[in-house]
Amino acid sequence: MKSSFYIEYYGKQIDEASLVKTAKNIWTKSGKKAADLKSLSLYVKPEENAVYYVFNDDESGSFTIEE
Fold first, then answer.
1. Distance (Å, rounded) from C-alpha 32 to C-alpha 23?
2. Pick from 26, 19, 6: which is nearest to 51 by CA?
3. Which three-class secondary structure state does DSSP give residue 17?
4. Residue 27 phi/psi, 5° resolution?
5. How far, in Å, CA of 55 to CA of 36, rounded?
6. To 10 degrees, the CA torsion angle through 52, 56, 60, 64?
7. Which pTM was predicted?
8. H or E stretch including 23?
9. With bands split at pLDDT 50, 70 and 90, how would you rate the model's confidence at 9?
10. Element (H, E) at 27
11. Are 60 and 53 in contact (CB under 8 A)?
């Protein structure tokens, strides 16, 4: 089964793959190896135009949703 996940709000549309890609880029740009990322949780808050992330159940932060 193939599935797709999109969030639509305020005339914007963002897909899950884009959010995951952005979070993974944050992880690797901080000098960490991609293989060391074991888990990723994303919490989308459209009203704040933000995505909050948790890497490996330990490290957290956020980034702005971009179209």
1. 12
2. 19
3. helix
4. -60, -50
5. 10
6. -30
7. 0.88
8. helix 16-29
9. confident
10. helix 16-29
11. yes
CA distance 7 to 13: 6
pLDDT for 14-29, tens place per residue?
999 999 999 999 999 9
- Residue 59 tokens read as 């490290």
Handedness of CA 6, 49, 52, 45 (dihedral sign): negative
pLDDT tens figures, 33-66? 999 999 999 999 999 999 999 999 999 999 998 7
Q: Are the C-beta atoms of residues 14 and 27 closer than 8 Å to each other?
A: no
- Sorted by where each begins, the domain ranges of the chain are 6-64
